[in-house]
């Protein structure tokens, strides 16, 4: 174990030495890209670009640029490589991080099964990405607005969305905040500043930028927007629009890419050819960028703190790429062993799993108790299972609500249809399961 | 590149068109000024309102609808964006979700196809999907329908497209009173509104009553306007087809036929009460629109009448005058014939009143 730690440490050092940070900096002459300062006098002064003239004829190749390095704090064994990077979180906070990750993981397993049993129509798990959810959410303030894609339940867990709220949503019952109007896992909470999930991929991205623009206009704004999306979603045109508008409008938004390696079955090497999503940030769109190990909760936390501080100070966006591995299937409509080896999944589900890493860290700290963890998992399982049976039995929302919230004021034709349905149901009560609906 | 060509064509069309307008009324207002003043006043009235789109700021808008507003309200209220319809439509939706009231200009509605997902799947449905937690008060506006000499990809009416979707309100103003009163109402409305203007009338000066210039002049959304009363036949139209119908009514008057002309103003919600009341009086109906016939506004009106007792008031089948069922041709003569002309409406009326529709259909078979 110690050998492994040492070698990883060494590798880290080598990587750091080889990190051609200078090359990257050289490639991005920040002064020249900033319109508030004068470019060097020998630069050409075209409106479209400020750059030096050269007489050497050559193509610039992707290989000419070193990849953007991956920031990490903790290795696979839970050791912190550079003590200066330890966020020094209290035992209480680390325990909340760990328990929230475990809760999410446990709840996912049961709700996934509940879909398999035909109890709900659809589900998406968060396996393998728990650290990027919890690490990022922990570094934010509650007033920061979240636009999720659909695989960000951990952010809600951190913010205090309760087990009954998750399960009531999946079962679309009378206590579902969405009143049974949206698919399972399409959570939303005004109280927790989490915008209702929208199914069409990447539409949340320009919307998040628009919301950030609205925030920027508020006097003494001290909140930002965080927009989560996958590396597959980044191929949509909306992603381009979001990046470009965030940069040109100067919006306090963190564009958080959860690069988990797969878009349903499409691996990232078929999704793009450049240096991930981070690679598009500085050169492509002129956006400050950071890339982190998304299985390392502390790396995500530190980077998110920095990103938040920057985006609010500068009113400029940040591209944030968290690299991880989607351990679960894409959704309940997918079996991922058809396109990737089970052994590969197993590595990411054990040694490289974000929960295992944090657990090892806590073991070193003497903050971990095996029996306590087992009890906690048992307790969560019990709560989730109990809640499922409660949520299943709860009444469905009043059927009249089907006509509500199409417009702020219900239009005449919907009022009429609602009345007709009322009369129809009144006349044929015996044929309808009215007892299952709230009256 | 097509866009600049479009603007040139439009401005020449406007010059040609404005000569045909009556200039007798005491007070005149162009549709462009009506829209511009509505925007100006709503920007002043509510600091959550802002305008975004391509060329809307420094350039004053491709059709000069936002003229002078950037100078007056600055970069934060009138925003030029990069050329990405899905981008700024999405930005507008997000800003509306976060509490602002964006007015999102599409240079023409033709380009809104690139952003339709944000209009339909996000703006129209979010209020419902969030069970009333998140509303999207937003106005998507711009010129709609056939322009002049800009062919298939720049000449089509989107009224039927957007009116299909619950959650949206769809407005199609005709004259300056409509444009001013309805745009102000749209900006103040809590729901997402699709506002379909017509560039051919931007430069047209319409007579307006004194109260139209009032700061609080608004026209209620969802109410049609009877432009000309009559007892023999009802002509229902929206946008520029209202003008075609009014000219047809004038022709018909020479023949002793009194046509009632209804300006729909609002496509969704559709003011069926006004249409039904008129049909109960005239017992005859012709619908006039510049969009295509299939699943069009006229088709919807026919269906609504058949679902209502008003159906039994009809003395003859309804006739639809609509755009010809082809993409808009470029050639001037073909373009002219691809849209309902005054004489088409006159002929349709005579046929409906003459009870010859049934025979004509039988003959065609």
From TrEMBL, chain A:
Its EC number is 1.2.4.4. It holds the Pfam family E1_dh. It is an enzyme of class 1 (oxidoreductase). One of its GO terms (biological process) is branched-chain amino acid catabolic process. Residues 100-398 form the Dehydrogenase E1 component domain. GO terms for molecular function: branched-chain 2-oxo acid dehydrogenase activity; metal ion binding. InterPro entries: Alpha-ketoacid_DH_E1_comp, DH_E1, THDP-binding. Keywords: Oxidoreductase, Thiamine pyrophosphate, Transit peptide. Its cofactor is thiamine diphosphate. It comes from the Eukaryota. GO terms for cellular component: mitochondrial matrix. It catalyses: N(6)-[(R)-lipoyl]-L-lysyl-[protein] + 3-methyl-2-oxobutanoate + H(+) = N(6)-[(R)-S(8)-2-methylpropanoyldihydrolipoyl]-L-lysyl-[protein] + CO2. Belongs to the BCKDHA family. The branched-chain alpha-keto dehydrogenase complex catalyzes the overall conversion of alpha-keto acids to acyl-CoA and CO(2). It contains multiple copies of three enzymatic components: branched-chain alpha-keto acid decarboxylase (E1), lipoamide acyltransferase (E2) and lipoamide dehydrogenase (E3). This is 2-oxoisovalerate dehydrogenase subunit alpha. It comes from Drosophila suzukii.
From TrEMBL, chain B:
It holds the Pfam family Transket_pyr. InterPro entries: PDHB_mito-type, THDP-binding, Transketo_C/PFOR_II, Transketolase-like_Pyr-bd, Transketolase_C. Gene3D superfamilies: 3.40.50.920, 3.40.50.970. Residues 29-204 form the Transketolase-like pyrimidine-binding domain. Keywords: Oxidoreductase, Pyruvate, Thiamine pyrophosphate. It catalyses: N(6)-[(R)-lipoyl]-L-lysyl-[protein] + pyruvate + H(+) = N(6)-[(R)-S(8)-acetyldihydrolipoyl]-L-lysyl-[protein] + CO2. One of its GO terms (molecular function) is pyruvate dehydrogenase (acetyl-transferring) activity. The pyruvate dehydrogenase complex catalyzes the overall conversion of pyruvate to acetyl-CoA and CO2. This is Pyruvate dehydrogenase E1 component subunit beta. It comes from Drosophila suzukii.
